Amino acid sequence: MDQPEVSDLQTSDLLDIDPDALREAERVFAQGILDTMSGKQVLRAVYEDTRVVVVMSDGSEYYFYGFMGESKKR
Fold first, then answer.
1. Rounded CA gap, 63 and 51, in Å?
2. What is the pLDDT of residues 6-57, one digit of tens each?
3. What's phi and psi for 48, nearest 5 deg?
4. Residue 1, in any domain of the structure
């Protein structure tokens, strides 16, 4: 089966994405990263427009992206 091109996607296909599922997947991914940080010291954290950068005292950097917040009920 051929993969659709981006230009072939219908707007409704994009609306079918479940933001709660994406948020949960990002939470699980972020938790995995946080688990590797155990015992390390955070030097600083920087909140940018599209991500949070956590810099450790050993110079390593960790990047956290969207879908981290709670869903807003309307």
1. 7
2. 666 555 555 677 878 888 888 888 888 889 888 999 999 999 888 889 999 9
3. -105, 175
4. no
Q: Which range of residues forms the domain containing residue 40?
A: 12-64
For the stretch 28-34, contacts whose Cβ atoms lie closer than 8 Å and that sit 24 or more positions apart, written own/partner, are: 30/64, 30/68, 33/62, 33/64
Q: How many domains would you assign to the chain?
A: 1
Query: From CA 59, how far away is CA 61, in angstroms rounded?
Result: 6
72: in domain: no
β-bridge mates for residue 45, sequence order: 54
Among candidate residues 26, 17, 16, the one with its CA nearest the CA of residue 51:
26
Tokens 């015992």 belong to residue: 39
